[in-house]
Specification:
Mean pLDDT: 89
Number of helices: 5
Number of strands: 5
Radius of gyration: 18 Å
Strand content: 25-35%
Distance between the termini: 50 Å
Shape: elongated
Low-confidence stretches: none
């Protein structure tokens, strides 16, 4: 059976908020609006995780473009989201897209973005289960 990206995202309760192909994100030596917003507002830890070894300040768009090409980081930058789950029983949770987590990911392919998003969402689910279980344990 051929599972599509949409099927995988739906099964893991993930949506892609933004997907920026870096190979086409620069026009007239300026980044497109989504990339410029990311670079101007980038959390330093996120930037270092996504672009290890980059020396340029993210707000220096021209230097970022040079480093992205120099480090062969011309794949996809994506902001993904997954809802906050509220465990109701050991095997069931409830959620609403009114309250969700987001994370920026980088990969060379969209398939790899989806794979990373699935792993990240699974980590969030485990953290939520652990938090719920800790609330149920009696205090010592």
């Amino acid at each position: 059976m051929n599972t599509t990206f949409n099927d995988r995202l739906e099964q893991a309760s993930i949506r892609i908020e933004k997907c920026i192909p870096l190979f086409g994100a620069f026009g007239d030596e300026r980044p497109n609006d989504d990339l410029a917003e990311f670079l101007d507002e980038a959390d330093p830890e996120d930037f270092d995780r996504l672009f290890p070894g980059f020396e340029a300040d993210p707000s220096d768009h021209e230097a970022f473009a040079y480093e992205a090409a120099h480090h062969s980081r011309m794949g996809f930058l994506a902001q993904v989201a997954t809802p906050v789950m509220r465990p109701v029983t050991k095997s069931a949770s409830s959620y609403s897209w009114g309250n969700y987590y987001t994370r920026w990911l980088y990969a060379d392919t969209v398939d790899d973005i989806v794979t990373q998003a699935e792993a990240w969402a699974a980590e969030r689910r485990q953290a939520e289960r652990d938090k719920a279980a800790a609330k149920l344990l009696p205090a010592s």
